[in-house]
Amino acid sequence: MTSELILKAEKLKLNGEHLDAIGILEDIVKSDLNCIAAFEELGDNFLSLRQFDKALRALKYALRLDPISANAHYLLGFTLSCLNQFDKSIAELEIADKIEPNHPEIVRCLGWSIFNAGKKKQGLVILSRANAIAPNDPLIMCDLGVCLLNDMQFEAATNMFEKILAIEPGNHQALECLKACSHFKEKHA
């Protein structure tokens, strides 16, 4: 029964119905304080709603229940990156990567956090690794492109955003970033 409810909550989350998903998940944890998946899903939903304090609480509780949950470490690292706590984010994401090596989302987020912590070259290498693992993932490609743009590698960034648009012609973020590439390329010419 619990697994069916978690699947229902996950479907709601994927449809953007986070409050409904949270309601189901809160009912689960009221009756089962040891349901790791429910706490991870709560954290993920709160993260999507940008309710970072609640996400942190749920994910830290999930990690108390299962200290080697790659998903909880990943979500905690992602949440910390949203709060610009990049050193803490990196620590969590490195744990997640050790538990579940070469997971493209974990590697993507790790590269992003390392880049934004000021280790730009290392961050770009790790983002490129994520892109090699999942070469047609627009989210990975977009993060790599944004970091290339921030590193003033305009040609490489432009190529990355054009690749995204070949996969998803209406990708709004890629279109906006491509405009930014043109603007900054002219400005720094």
Task: Please tell me about this protein's structure.
With 189 residues, this protein is an all-alpha fold. Among the domains are: 1-60, Alpha Horseshoe (Serine Threonine Protein Phosphatase 5, Tetratricopeptide repeat), CATH 1.25.40; 135-189. The protein is built from 11 helices and no strands. It has helices at 2-14, 18-31, 36-48, 52-65, 70-82, 86-99, 104-116, 120-133, 138-150, 154-167, 172-187. The radius of gyration is 18 Å and the shape is elongated. It starts with a helix and ends with a helix. The model has no long low-confidence stretch (mean pLDDT 95).
List keywords for this structure.
single chain; 189 residues; mainly alpha; Serine Threonine Protein Phosphatase 5, Tetratricopeptide repeat; elongated
Briefly say what this structure is.
The protein has 189 residues and is an all-alpha fold. 80% of the residues lie in helices and 0% in strands.
